[in-house]
Amino acid sequence: MFYRLSGVHHANYVSDSRIFKVPADRNLAAFMFLIGIAAPFIIPSLYLNSYMLPWLIWTSAALGLNLVTGWAGQLHLGYAAVMAVGAYSSIHAARFGVPWEFALLVGGLTSSVIGSLFAFAALRVKGLYLALTTLAMQFAMDWVLTHSPAISGGSHASLQSPTLALLGQEITTDTGFYYVAFGWCVLVTIFMLNLKRTGLGRALVAVREKDFAAAILGVNSFYYKILAFATSSFIAGVSGALLVATFFFLAAPEQFSVAVSIQVLAMVIVGGLGSIIGSYLGVALILLVPGIVNGFVVSLSDWLGMQINVETLAHIPNAVYGALIVIILLIEPLGLGKLYGNIRDYLMVWPFDQFKK
Amino acid sequence: MNRVNKLLAGLTTVGSLVFGAASMAEPFKIGVCYDLSKAYTFATPQVAQAAQDLAKLVNMRGGIGGEPVEVIVRDHGNEPQRGIECYSKLSREGVFVFDTLSTPVSLAVLPRAMEDQRILMQSLVGRGDAVDGTVFDWVYPVGPTYWGQAANNIAYIKQVHGGDLSGVKVGFMYFDYPFGQEPIEILKTLSEKEGFELLLYPVPLPGSDQAGVWSKVRRDNPDHVIVWMLGGAHTVASKEMARNRIPMDKYISVNWLNEVDIANIGTETAKGIKRGTNVVGGQDVALYQEIMAELYDKGEGTGPIEKTQDVFYNTGLAMYSIMFEAARIAAEREGLPITAESYKAGLESLEGYDANGLMAPITVTAEDHGGGGKTRIEMWDGKAWVPQTDWISEYTDVVWDVVKDSSSKYQQ
């Protein structure tokens, strides 16, 4: 009824390797894309600027982390540090006079190089040891940023970003910033959607499931791990640069601290490892829900005319938010993406499969 | 049809309720986007309480120019993204004076405030070079910068040593991140100028491990240790000092040392500890007494009375006295409603304002948004804070060199 299908059956390889195996999924994606394009005209500028824009940029970043953690199965606790590398090198390039298109590329490539250099050392160990090594990378980066004024700029280690300009066009409006973020997020999403059906994607999954089994099959697991780190670092670098260029306008070490690394990892885990829509949902939950719940609790207490201490008022949303994460992971340990998948599967051939039960 | 009509009628009633409320006398609002749940909670509750109490007091006395004032307190959890959200939301509601009391958030909001021409108050947090009004037109870090505060501490030490610092050893212990590193440059410059020996003691965050660094202090035996740490780190330091038999009176803290820290150290043990401050500590302050008489004695205080017995409460009173005083000047000179421009002019007309003896007198000008950066040294005598100096602001030429050097990089 909703999907107008009797099930997903493939008669040939072409249909099996489609991005969207169900037409309704494709239509939904197209619909979301159109909403994304129309967003500046239908969403009030406050929400566009303070919710949609950071949501899209962080989603791109989370997708990059999902590549290395969800697809290649390598736990990464220093992702924000890689974003910082991209952000700082792009801004320095742009301040040096490099056009922004190339500055972003420079940021991505620098992150990629540094990210995979670290991976070279880190990949000699596995699992939790790898996680700790990436955490060390985060701390090394924090230290470098707070101790080298040449990199991190002047007072309080903050570095002003020059005005973003793409294709000879200076971007200064909220709408402009939104479209830049939207464009990058769409690019990353398309890349990730396609990754699933390429040899690279399959190799990464093989490495994730069992790296020495993959090696027996002829998949060079070390090479693919490095490739995963390099690719995800590139995405991180550009996302970090765009985050500063379109949202913060100024880079500071706190924006890329260890807390942020853990936050991005939480986005990916709550969203669902290896799930694209899950990354969107996970970022929305981790990044936006605290602010939204906060606003909601404040207006609720105003509306009820309650005189609540501001401190209590600040802690209620945190409690609600924490409970929300626990509840979601209790209901579906595989994350929000899987939760969405469950609903979709249930409705796939609804109501006809109900007779079976 | 009938049902639709009812629904429409209901909607109009709700609508008129909502919009009716909005069309009442528009108060002068201050957007207080604070971190009430994460890193800055050692100070924000007291400061927020002071802001709310002071607003109540102002309203009881007829508001500003006949209009009420309102402080809108929101939590941003020290996340730059949520700080920007708070700023964007409130500024769309017509708020044009903001305070964040958080360095990361202040840094993140600053470019927007400059662009939108909204007033960003950032006393004691954020980038220090923002005192340069010629570059940062809309940012007002009224109060001392860490640079100025450190310079004043050196001036105090010079006073103690009878005006000659040659041969004196001054230790500088700091959190090894931008907050703590900021004064280093100025201390180095002053060490060259005055001839004292500067010893640096970096402490890794969050300052719970200071064993190594204090034994180093014992070996070096400096005459004074200027300390740029906060919260529980003070307590850890005091324990290590006792272990190494370093007398407490060598300790000169940054302004972030309050009664809670003193209680944790132990009121007797803490005897002799010093801090730089720009507000008068303790309860013997006219404004504090007025708030007690008119609010807390009548049970109308915003929060628990214990929170008011804290120097950060006085700090909050000082910060918001400045903001309301500027509004009062703006309303007097240019009438109501107060606009961002008239408020800015009001701030820049503050001259020798000390909120009736609550803080160091400040004079804000279009060039100096810091108000002069006066501080003094106070010493804990076991019961109360005893001032050791007048309100001083020394080595201003050196401080301004650093400020100008740093602010010139902002525009590049």
TrEMBL record, chain A:
It comes from the Bacteria. Pfam families: BPD_transp_2. The keyword Transmembrane applies. It is a multi-pass membrane protein. It is found in: Cell membrane. CDD domains: TM_PBP1_LivM_like (cd06581). Keywords: Cell membrane, Membrane, Transmembrane, Transmembrane helix. Its main location: membrane. Signal peptide: none annotated. The chain crosses the membrane at residues 28-47, 102-121, 128-145, 176-195, 226-250, 256-273, 280-300, 320-340. This is Branched-chain amino acid ABC transporter permease. It comes from Ruegeria aquimaris.
